[in-house]
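tl;dr need the bound structure. longer version: we got a ligand (guanosine-5'-triphosphate) that a collaborator sent over and nobodys looked at where it sits. i said id run it. heres the input, straight from their email, havent touched it
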Amino acid sequence: MTTRTFTGRNFAEAISKVKKELGEDAVILKSEKKTSANSFGLGGRAIFEVTAADSRELKADLENGTEFANELSVQLKDETPGRVPPSQNYEMALLRSEVTALRDQLSDIVKHFRYSNLPSMPESLSRSLTQMTEAGIEKELATDLTAEALVQLGPDALMSAEEISTFVIAKMSRIAPPAVNRVAPRNGKPFKVALVGAPGAGKTSTLQKLATDPEGYGKLKIGLISLDTHRMAAIEQLRTFARVSGLPLEIAYTPKDIPAAMNKMAGVQIILIDTPGCSPGEDQRMQDLSALLEALEPDETHLLLNATTRVQEQAAVARRFQQIGITHLSLTRLDESQQPGALVTISQMAKKPIAWLTTGQKFVSQIERYRPDWLRSKVFESSYSSRAFTPLKSTASHA
Ligand SMILES: Nc1nc2c(ncn2[C@@H]2O[C@H](COP(=O)(O)OP(=O)(O)OP(=O)(O)O)[C@@H](O)[C@H]2O)c(=O)[nH]1
Ligand SMILES: [Mg+2]
C-alpha cells in the first residue's frame, strides 16, 4: 500500500485534494497542522497536511499483512537459538522488532480505519455518536452501537434521530439492564436489602431516601439494621433518623448479634441494612463486612457508586465489591455528574443490573428507579450543560 500526503491552506482544501486523487472512499491515516519555516528559520504560515491511502489497497494489505506478520512470527519462533550462528542473532532481533512494529502499525490502521469512516455517516447517526460519548458512554461501546445501527437500520430510520435513539437505548438496556423490582415478604419473612460501597458513596442517604420516599419503599413497613459501628456519629445519625421517622433500628456489631436483631424485626416487610464505607484496599474491613453480610443473608446487596468519580475508579470499586457478592448497582450524585452514561460501562463490566439513582441530598423526590427512558433523556435529550443539575424524574411507572 502506498500512502500519500496532501497539503492545503486548511483541512477542507487538503481533504478535497485527497478525494480528487484517491476517491470518496479514501482512508485518512493522519492529519496535522504544521507551520512552514520562513526565510529566517522561524515559524511562518500554517500548512494543513493530510496523509491518506486508497481504501481498497489498504483493505488488501490489512488481510495480507496480518497473515504475513503471523507467518513471519511463527517462522521466527521455530528457530532454535542454539542453531542460529552468532552473526545472525542481530538480524533476528532486528527482524523480530520489525514484526512487532508491523503488528502495532496494523492495529493502529485497523483502529483508524474504524473511526475514519465515521464522518461519512448520516448526519443524525454521527450526532448520536457524539451525544453518547459526551454523556460518558465509553467510545468503543458508542462506536459499536453506531456501527450496529448503521448495519441494522434502514435508510429512512437512519435519517431519524428518534429512531436511532430508540435503537441505541434498546441495545443499551440489554447491556445495562434495569433491576426487576421483586420486593415481597415471603411467608411473613422480611425482604432484606443491604447497601454497600466506598466511604461517602451515599449509603446512609440512600437508605433514608428508600425508607421515606414512596418511589422507594416508603409505602412498606420498614425496619433498619446498621452494621456501621466504627463511628459513633454514624450510629447517632441513624438513631435520630429512626426516631424521627418512627422506624425500628437495630445495631449489629458482630455476626453473633444478627439473630437477636432479626428477632426484633417481627412484622416488618423490608429491612434496609446500612454498612460501613470500605475502600477497595481495606481488606480487613471488607472481610468483617463480608462476615456480617453472610450472617444476615440479604436478598439484595446494592453497591452504591458515586457517579461523579471517574469511571476507572467506579470500576475498581465494583471489581473489589464483586468479591463479597453484590447483586445490584445503584448510582448516587447524578445531579452533579456530567457523564451519567458511564453507568452503562460499569453495569456491562460488573454484569449487574442497575436499581436506584439518586439526584440530591433531600430524602424525598431525589431518588428513582433506573429506567432506560432515563438514559434516553440524559444521553439524547439533554445538552452537555444541562445534563446535571436538573430533576430526572420520569412519568413512567415502576418496572
Ligand atoms: N448532591 C448529592 N449529594 C448526595 C447524594 N447522595 C448523598 N449525598 C451526600 O453525600 C454525602 C455522603 O453521603 P452519606 O450517605 O453519608 O454517605 P455514606 O456512604 O453513608 O458515607 P459513610 O457512611 O461515611 O461511608 C452527604 O453529604 C450526602 O448528603 C446525591 O444524590 N446528590
Ligand atoms: Mg453512612
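gonna send this back to them w/ a short note. Confidence is low (pLDDT under 50) at residues 38-43, 71-87, 389-399.
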